[in-house]
Amino acid sequence: LLYAGNGTLYESTGLYGRSSVRRVALQTGKVEAQHNMPSSLFGEGLTLLDERLYQVTWKETFGFIYVKHNLSQLSKFNHQMTDGWGLATDGKIFFGSDGTSTLYQMDPQTMKVIKKHIIRYGGVEVIYLNELEYVNGEVWANVWQTDCIARISPADGTLIGWILLSSLREGLIADGEEDIDVLNS
């Protein structure tokens, strides 16, 4: 989920046979535009750079570039992550995750890895880094199947702190939601 200003959200939805990139009105939740992916692909992380949306796919080592205003697919790119889970940008480089403890830094022009950091907390690797966001000079990564978001320094991969969201899950369960396994669902 990506907020692009002007009351507009962009969303990459997952699952085989149901993956898409969508533009959604923040106030109403109405889908204003949608690009459906082939049923053989599982859509994952999405980020915006220079009026283009970049999306990675889960098990493939490639992703897609879309025109922001109409979601038409411009091109396909290859990347060097094991899987595609999360994608974010600081406006200069991409940050990627593949479900492991690795935070990748990639060149947006070539998608080649510039740098990798293994994220640790108390000396233990933090696995299942999932969707990423770049927030105020930090990379935020939700950790799959937990109620936690890791706050990471992009400079050296230091885990700065945690955002704990157990009350969010409790509220969703109270509202009748089931099978909640990720914070980005």
Automatic annotation (TrEMBL):
EC number in record: 2.3.2.5
Pfam families listed in its UniProt record: Glu_cyclase_2
Enzyme class name: transferase
GO molecular function terms listed in the Swiss-Prot or TrEMBL record: glutaminyl-peptide cyclotransferase activity
Highest rank taxon of the organism: Eukaryota
SUPFAM superfamilies membership: YVTN repeat-like/Quinoprotein amine dehydrogenase
Keywords: Acyltransferase, Transferase
Keyword GTP-binding found: no
Protein's name in the database: Glutaminyl-peptide cyclotransferase
